[in-house]
Amino acid sequence: MSTIGVTPTNTPTNPGSRVAGAARLHYLTNPWAFVWAPLIAFFGLLAVFVAIAAIAGPGGGTSLGPIMAVFFMMQAYQSVSSVFSLSQALGLTRREYLAGAGAVGLIGAVILSIALTVLGAAEHVTEGFGLGVHLSYSPAVFDRGLAAALATWLITLLGAYIAGLFAATLRQRFGSIAIWVAILGVVVVIAAAAAVIGYLDAWPQVGNWVGRVGPFGVALWAIPLEIIAAAATSLILRRTPA
């Protein structure tokens, strides 16, 4: 694979340039996963559902946010599986690789968060482009304003990206079985929490709390979990063979 245009190994005294090189490495090695697939999914789904509504009548649509979150999780997984080993062969440190991978996720999340917010606002103003199509807008997400909607999308997309990095790092370090063990652990924790809530008859209070804070509040509460997952990913990656 050609490494023309990759600069990290040429600038050993410039950490910022090396991190930029690590980020650029993602786009050079797999532009489909990191550029074209999310764009095609975003604009493709928009065009398809608008066309369906124009032909079949008003209504219809789905949420682009969760779909984009899945793409971001896949991006992060691709980062570790296809870029990590190459970055080590080019002389990047694990910290530089992870900073570059994080920069790629942040750039993409910011761009798509803005796109989702603008699309949602346009859908609200035009009543789904006059066809009742709502791919991004929902009252729950936008009831606190555009800034809160933007923050909600950004935190959600970054959370998906961090989850993908964590899962791929587990697989790289311990094998595929580690992912299933992690999934099982999450399921057990959720089941235990649900059992405790049910035992305390606290489901109405939980429902009221979720309704009160809304998606924006839930996203804010997810930030500490994302920080923990990012720190765990960094610790595991330090001991992961290239």
UniProtKB/TrEMBL annotation:
Per its UniProt entry, which superkingdom is the organism in? Bacteria
Segments spanning the bilayer are: 33-55, 67-86, 98-122, 146-170, 177-198, 218-237
Which UniProt key words apply to this protein? Membrane, Transmembrane, Transmembrane helix
The name on file for this protein is Integral membrane protein
The species this protein belongs to is Acidipropionibacterium acidipropionici (strain ATCC 4875 / DSM 20272 / JCM 6432 / NBRC 12425 / NCIMB 8070 / 4) (Propionibacterium acidipropionici)
